[in-house]
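In the lab's daily routine, each protein ends up as an entry in a very long ledger. A line of letters takes care of the sequence, but it says nothing directly about the fold. The fold becomes a row of whole numbers, each drawn from a learned catalogue of backbone shapes. The protein below has been through that process, and both of its lines are reproduced in full:
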Amino acid sequence: MVNNAAEAYKRQQIMTATPEALTLMLYDGCLRFMKEGLDAMEKKQWEQCNTSLQKAENIISEFRVTLDMQYDIAKQLMPLYEYCYNCLVEGNMRSKPEKVTEAMGIIKELRGAWAQAMIKARKEKGAS
């Protein structure tokens, strides 16, 4: 019962979130899956490691396909997303935790920048 309520709440959060908030949720999920993958790699739980890292790869793929390349920022983000994706694939295939950690660092920075941009946009919107 509690699990169903938690799932319903989470689903409601997603359904009512702004596109900006959804992006933040995706960054958070991506980081969570990378951490899960690293933890599983450390324990040599290869199937769980693979599953978690593939979920993170899927989120990064979603970021890549939704970039609007008419904006300069998208042209700057694309190589970062591609690099992170490639780090995750290599880390997963070759059991290299340092590659996953490298991707995590980049995604953490992007997540932080996104959160700051949301705060700034909210303040500007409130001032107008």
